[in-house]
Amino acid sequence: MSGKAQRHRQDGQTSLAVVIVTYNSADALLPLLDSIPSGLEGVDDFEIVIADNASHDGSAELAEAHPAGPRVIRMGRNAGYAAAINAAVATVDDDRAILVLNPDLRLYPGAAMPLLEGLSDPSVGVVVPTNYSEEGHVDPSLRREPSMMTAWADALLGGGIAGRLGLGETITKASSYDRSGLVDWATGSALLVSAKARKAVGQWDESFFLYSEEVDFLRRVREARFGVLYEPRAKVMHAGGGSGRNPKLFALQTANRIRYYALHHGTLATLVFRAAVATGEALRCWRNPSHRAAFSSSLRPLLKGTDFMLLRN
Fold first, then answer.
1. Euclidean distance between the first and final Cα of the chain, in Å?
2. Phi-psi domain of 198 (left: phi exceeds 0; alpha: psi -120 through 50; beta: other)
Protein backbone atom coordinates (compact mmCIF):
# COMPACT_ATOMS: atom_id res chain seq x y z
CA MET A 1 0.00 0.00 0.00
CA SER A 2 1.31 3.47 -0.84
CA GLY A 3 2.17 6.05 1.80
CA LYS A 4 -0.77 8.18 0.76
CA ALA A 5 -3.17 5.26 1.07
CA GLN A 6 -1.73 4.43 4.51
CA ARG A 7 -2.26 8.02 5.67
CA HIS A 8 -5.87 7.75 4.54
CA ARG A 9 -6.30 4.60 6.59
CA GLN A 10 -4.93 6.39 9.66
CA ASP A 11 -7.11 9.45 9.04
CA GLY A 12 -10.26 7.34 8.63
CA GLN A 13 -10.70 8.24 4.98
CA THR A 14 -10.91 4.59 3.94
CA SER A 15 -14.28 4.63 5.67
CA LEU A 16 -16.76 5.23 2.88
CA ALA A 17 -20.30 4.60 1.78
CA VAL A 18 -21.19 3.61 -1.77
CA VAL A 19 -24.45 5.33 -2.78
CA ILE A 20 -26.41 4.07 -5.78
CA VAL A 21 -29.73 5.41 -7.05
CA THR A 22 -31.91 2.94 -8.92
CA TYR A 23 -34.97 3.39 -11.09
CA ASN A 24 -35.90 0.29 -13.08
CA SER A 25 -32.21 -0.61 -13.07
CA ALA A 26 -32.43 -4.39 -12.58
CA ASP A 27 -30.62 -5.26 -15.80
CA ALA A 28 -27.61 -3.08 -14.95
CA LEU A 29 -27.48 -3.35 -11.17
CA LEU A 30 -26.30 -6.95 -10.76
CA PRO A 31 -22.98 -6.46 -12.66
CA LEU A 32 -22.29 -3.29 -10.65
CA LEU A 33 -22.86 -5.02 -7.32
CA ASP A 34 -20.72 -7.93 -8.50
CA SER A 35 -17.87 -5.50 -9.28
CA ILE A 36 -17.87 -3.73 -5.91
CA PRO A 37 -15.79 -6.18 -3.83
CA SER A 38 -12.81 -6.07 -6.21
CA GLY A 39 -13.37 -2.39 -6.98
CA LEU A 40 -13.10 -1.56 -3.27
CA GLU A 41 -10.06 -3.76 -2.69
CA GLY A 42 -7.99 -2.23 0.11
CA VAL A 43 -10.94 -0.37 1.63
CA ASP A 44 -11.47 -2.00 5.00
CA ASP A 45 -14.62 -0.18 6.13
CA PHE A 46 -17.47 0.44 3.73
CA GLU A 47 -21.20 0.11 3.33
CA ILE A 48 -23.46 0.08 0.28
CA VAL A 49 -26.66 2.11 0.31
CA ILE A 50 -29.19 1.90 -2.52
CA ALA A 51 -32.02 4.42 -2.81
CA ASP A 52 -34.70 2.97 -5.06
CA ASN A 53 -37.09 5.39 -6.77
CA ALA A 54 -40.12 3.07 -6.78
CA SER A 55 -38.78 0.72 -9.45
CA HIS A 56 -41.31 -1.74 -10.85
CA ASP A 57 -38.77 -4.17 -12.32
CA GLY A 58 -37.56 -5.76 -9.08
CA SER A 59 -34.47 -3.57 -8.64
CA ALA A 60 -34.95 -3.23 -4.88
CA GLU A 61 -35.59 -6.94 -4.39
CA LEU A 62 -32.55 -7.87 -6.49
CA ALA A 63 -30.38 -5.56 -4.39
CA GLU A 64 -31.68 -6.94 -1.11
CA ALA A 65 -30.89 -10.49 -2.21
CA HIS A 66 -27.35 -9.73 -3.42
CA PRO A 67 -24.46 -11.15 -1.36
CA ALA A 68 -22.78 -7.72 -1.26
CA GLY A 69 -25.40 -6.90 1.37
CA PRO A 70 -26.53 -3.41 0.35
CA ARG A 71 -28.91 -1.50 2.57
CA VAL A 72 -31.94 -0.54 0.47
CA ILE A 73 -34.00 2.61 1.02
CA ARG A 74 -37.36 2.49 -0.74
CA MET A 75 -38.29 6.04 -1.72
CA GLY A 76 -41.93 5.11 -2.40
CA ARG A 77 -42.03 7.31 -5.51
CA ASN A 78 -39.81 8.48 -8.32
CA ALA A 79 -38.34 11.31 -6.29
CA GLY A 80 -35.51 12.12 -8.69
CA TYR A 81 -31.78 11.49 -8.64
CA ALA A 82 -30.72 14.26 -6.24
CA ALA A 83 -33.50 13.52 -3.75
CA ALA A 84 -32.56 9.85 -3.67
CA ILE A 85 -28.88 10.70 -3.10
CA ASN A 86 -29.89 12.97 -0.22
CA ALA A 87 -32.07 10.26 1.32
CA ALA A 88 -29.22 7.74 1.15
CA VAL A 89 -26.56 10.15 2.43
CA ALA A 90 -28.78 11.15 5.36
CA THR A 91 -28.41 7.60 6.72
CA VAL A 92 -24.59 7.62 6.54
CA ASP A 93 -22.26 8.71 9.35
CA ASP A 94 -20.88 12.21 8.86
CA ASP A 95 -17.25 11.06 8.91
CA ARG A 96 -17.59 8.79 5.85
CA ALA A 97 -16.65 9.76 2.32
CA ILE A 98 -19.44 9.12 -0.19
CA LEU A 99 -18.84 7.28 -3.46
CA VAL A 100 -21.82 8.06 -5.73
CA LEU A 101 -22.23 5.57 -8.57
CA ASN A 102 -24.70 5.31 -11.43
CA PRO A 103 -26.32 1.87 -11.56
CA ASP A 104 -25.01 1.24 -15.09
CA LEU A 105 -21.35 1.35 -13.99
CA ARG A 106 -18.81 -1.39 -13.39
CA LEU A 107 -15.81 -0.79 -11.14
CA TYR A 108 -12.43 -1.91 -12.39
CA PRO A 109 -10.42 -3.83 -9.77
CA GLY A 110 -8.84 -1.44 -7.27
CA ALA A 111 -10.82 1.56 -8.55
CA ALA A 112 -11.57 3.06 -5.14
CA MET A 113 -8.12 3.39 -3.59
CA PRO A 114 -6.73 5.94 -6.09
CA LEU A 115 -9.85 8.03 -5.48
CA LEU A 116 -9.28 7.88 -1.73
CA GLU A 117 -5.62 8.73 -2.21
CA GLY A 118 -6.74 11.87 -4.01
CA LEU A 119 -8.41 12.99 -0.79
CA SER A 120 -5.03 12.94 1.00
CA ASP A 121 -4.79 16.56 -0.15
CA PRO A 122 -7.13 18.42 2.25
CA SER A 123 -7.86 21.02 -0.43
CA VAL A 124 -9.54 18.34 -2.59
CA GLY A 125 -13.24 17.76 -1.97
CA VAL A 126 -14.22 15.48 -4.84
CA VAL A 127 -12.26 12.95 -6.90
CA VAL A 128 -13.53 11.50 -10.19
CA PRO A 129 -12.24 8.51 -12.19
CA THR A 130 -11.64 7.70 -15.84
CA ASN A 131 -14.81 6.50 -17.51
CA TYR A 132 -14.46 3.80 -20.16
CA SER A 133 -17.07 2.76 -22.70
CA GLU A 134 -18.16 -0.85 -23.05
CA GLU A 135 -15.76 -1.07 -26.01
CA GLY A 136 -12.85 0.00 -23.82
CA HIS A 137 -12.45 3.56 -25.09
CA VAL A 138 -12.02 6.54 -22.77
CA ASP A 139 -15.34 8.34 -22.44
CA PRO A 140 -14.76 12.13 -22.37
CA SER A 141 -16.39 12.83 -19.01
CA LEU A 142 -14.51 16.00 -17.98
CA ARG A 143 -16.22 19.35 -18.45
CA ARG A 144 -15.66 23.10 -18.40
CA GLU A 145 -18.04 25.35 -16.52
CA PRO A 146 -20.96 26.25 -18.83
CA SER A 147 -20.53 29.70 -20.33
CA MET A 148 -21.74 31.73 -23.28
CA MET A 149 -18.55 30.79 -25.12
CA THR A 150 -18.97 27.04 -24.59
CA ALA A 151 -22.67 27.21 -25.45
CA TRP A 152 -22.16 29.08 -28.73
CA ALA A 153 -19.13 27.01 -29.70
CA ASP A 154 -21.06 23.76 -29.15
CA ALA A 155 -24.09 25.16 -30.97
CA LEU A 156 -22.34 26.43 -34.09
CA LEU A 157 -19.41 24.01 -34.39
CA GLY A 158 -20.81 20.91 -32.73
CA GLY A 159 -19.44 19.35 -29.58
CA GLY A 160 -16.74 17.36 -31.36
CA ILE A 161 -15.11 20.26 -33.20
CA ALA A 162 -15.63 22.69 -30.32
CA GLY A 163 -14.03 20.21 -27.94
CA ARG A 164 -11.00 19.65 -30.17
CA LEU A 165 -10.50 23.43 -30.37
CA GLY A 166 -10.74 23.77 -26.59
CA LEU A 167 -13.84 25.94 -26.86
CA GLY A 168 -16.67 23.58 -25.95
CA GLU A 169 -17.99 22.37 -22.63
CA THR A 170 -16.67 18.82 -23.06
CA ILE A 171 -12.92 18.31 -22.70
CA THR A 172 -12.03 15.98 -25.56
CA LYS A 173 -8.24 16.36 -25.76
CA ALA A 174 -6.88 12.84 -25.24
CA SER A 175 -3.85 13.95 -23.21
CA SER A 176 -6.16 15.56 -20.64
CA TYR A 177 -7.20 12.04 -19.62
CA ASP A 178 -3.64 10.78 -19.18
CA ARG A 179 -2.73 12.80 -16.10
CA SER A 180 -4.28 13.83 -12.81
CA GLY A 181 -5.48 17.41 -12.47
CA LEU A 182 -8.17 19.77 -11.25
CA VAL A 183 -11.30 20.24 -13.37
CA ASP A 184 -14.42 22.37 -13.20
CA TRP A 185 -16.73 19.38 -13.12
CA ALA A 186 -17.24 15.89 -14.50
CA THR A 187 -20.27 13.85 -15.39
CA GLY A 188 -21.80 12.43 -12.24
CA SER A 189 -21.58 8.73 -13.13
CA ALA A 190 -18.94 8.19 -10.43
CA LEU A 191 -17.57 10.66 -7.91
CA LEU A 192 -16.08 10.43 -4.43
CA VAL A 193 -17.05 13.24 -2.03
CA SER A 194 -14.95 13.79 1.09
CA ALA A 195 -16.57 14.02 4.51
CA LYS A 196 -15.36 17.63 4.82
CA ALA A 197 -16.88 18.61 1.49
CA ARG A 198 -20.15 16.89 2.44
CA LYS A 199 -20.40 19.03 5.55
CA ALA A 200 -19.45 22.24 3.77
CA VAL A 201 -21.68 21.87 0.72
CA GLY A 202 -24.76 20.20 2.16
CA GLN A 203 -27.47 18.51 0.18
CA TRP A 204 -27.81 18.08 -3.56
CA ASP A 205 -30.36 20.44 -5.14
CA GLU A 206 -33.50 18.34 -5.53
CA SER A 207 -35.19 20.87 -7.80
CA PHE A 208 -33.16 19.56 -10.76
CA PHE A 209 -34.79 16.12 -10.47
CA LEU A 210 -32.40 14.67 -13.07
CA TYR A 211 -29.47 16.23 -15.00
CA SER A 212 -27.34 19.23 -14.03
CA GLU A 213 -27.57 18.32 -10.33
CA GLU A 214 -23.89 17.31 -10.44
CA VAL A 215 -22.92 20.56 -12.21
CA ASP A 216 -24.59 22.51 -9.42
CA PHE A 217 -23.14 20.35 -6.65
CA LEU A 218 -19.59 20.53 -7.98
CA ARG A 219 -19.86 24.29 -8.45
CA ARG A 220 -20.77 24.55 -4.77
CA VAL A 221 -17.82 22.30 -3.93
CA ARG A 222 -15.51 24.76 -5.69
CA GLU A 223 -17.23 27.74 -4.05
CA ALA A 224 -16.51 26.10 -0.70
CA ARG A 225 -12.81 26.24 -1.67
CA PHE A 226 -12.41 22.55 -2.40
CA GLY A 227 -10.95 21.22 -5.64
CA VAL A 228 -12.48 18.68 -8.01
CA LEU A 229 -9.67 16.27 -8.91
CA TYR A 230 -9.54 13.93 -11.88
CA GLU A 231 -7.60 10.74 -11.11
CA PRO A 232 -6.87 8.54 -14.18
CA ARG A 233 -5.63 5.57 -12.12
CA ALA A 234 -9.19 5.04 -10.92
CA LYS A 235 -11.16 3.32 -13.66
CA VAL A 236 -14.82 2.53 -14.21
CA MET A 237 -16.81 1.25 -17.15
CA HIS A 238 -19.95 3.23 -17.93
CA ALA A 239 -22.59 1.58 -20.07
CA GLY A 240 -24.16 5.00 -20.63
CA GLY A 241 -27.56 6.54 -20.11
CA GLY A 242 -30.50 6.93 -22.40
CA SER A 243 -30.96 10.70 -22.47
CA GLY A 244 -29.68 11.07 -26.03
CA ARG A 245 -32.10 8.44 -27.31
CA ASN A 246 -35.12 9.43 -25.22
CA PRO A 247 -36.72 12.71 -26.36
CA LYS A 248 -38.36 13.33 -22.98
CA LEU A 249 -35.09 12.92 -21.08
CA PHE A 250 -33.11 14.93 -23.62
CA ALA A 251 -35.66 17.74 -23.32
CA LEU A 252 -35.28 17.68 -19.53
CA GLN A 253 -31.48 17.69 -19.85
CA THR A 254 -31.70 20.75 -22.10
CA ALA A 255 -34.10 22.56 -19.80
CA ASN A 256 -31.86 21.95 -16.81
CA ARG A 257 -28.79 23.21 -18.67
CA ILE A 258 -30.53 26.54 -19.12
CA ARG A 259 -31.99 26.57 -15.63
CA TYR A 260 -28.59 25.88 -14.06
CA TYR A 261 -27.05 28.77 -15.99
CA ALA A 262 -29.92 31.06 -14.98
CA LEU A 263 -29.36 30.29 -11.29
CA HIS A 264 -25.86 31.76 -11.48
CA HIS A 265 -26.16 34.55 -14.06
CA GLY A 266 -28.28 37.58 -14.84
CA THR A 267 -31.29 37.82 -17.13
CA LEU A 268 -29.45 39.14 -20.19
CA ALA A 269 -26.64 36.58 -19.97
CA THR A 270 -29.22 33.82 -19.59
CA LEU A 271 -31.08 35.02 -22.69
CA VAL A 272 -27.87 34.83 -24.71
CA PHE A 273 -27.07 31.38 -23.29
CA ARG A 274 -30.60 30.16 -24.01
CA ALA A 275 -30.35 31.51 -27.56
CA ALA A 276 -27.16 29.51 -28.07
CA VAL A 277 -28.78 26.29 -26.83
CA ALA A 278 -31.88 26.87 -28.95
CA THR A 279 -29.76 27.61 -32.01
CA GLY A 280 -27.77 24.43 -31.58
CA GLU A 281 -30.88 22.29 -31.25
CA ALA A 282 -32.61 24.06 -34.16
CA LEU A 283 -29.64 23.32 -36.42
CA ARG A 284 -29.93 19.63 -35.52
CA CYS A 285 -33.70 19.20 -35.52
CA TRP A 286 -33.47 17.20 -38.74
CA ARG A 287 -31.46 14.47 -37.05
CA ASN A 288 -33.97 12.91 -34.68
CA PRO A 289 -36.94 13.56 -32.34
CA SER A 290 -34.63 14.16 -29.37
CA HIS A 291 -33.22 17.34 -30.90
CA ARG A 292 -36.72 18.50 -31.82
CA ALA A 293 -37.87 17.93 -28.25
CA ALA A 294 -34.80 19.75 -26.93
CA PHE A 295 -35.43 22.73 -29.23
CA SER A 296 -39.01 22.97 -27.99
CA SER A 297 -37.81 22.71 -24.41
CA SER A 298 -35.26 25.49 -24.90
CA LEU A 299 -38.07 27.90 -25.80
CA ARG A 300 -40.35 27.10 -22.86
CA PRO A 301 -40.46 28.99 -19.56
CA LEU A 302 -37.88 27.73 -17.09
CA LEU A 303 -39.27 25.15 -14.69
CA LYS A 304 -37.89 23.10 -11.84
CA GLY A 305 -37.08 19.58 -12.93
CA THR A 306 -39.93 18.20 -10.83
CA ASP A 307 -42.41 20.60 -12.46
CA PHE A 308 -41.02 19.81 -15.92
CA MET A 309 -41.55 16.09 -15.43
CA LEU A 310 -45.12 16.64 -14.23
CA LEU A 311 -45.80 18.80 -17.27
CA ARG A 312 -44.39 16.19 -19.65
CA ASN A 313 -46.28 13.25 -18.07
1. 51
2. alpha
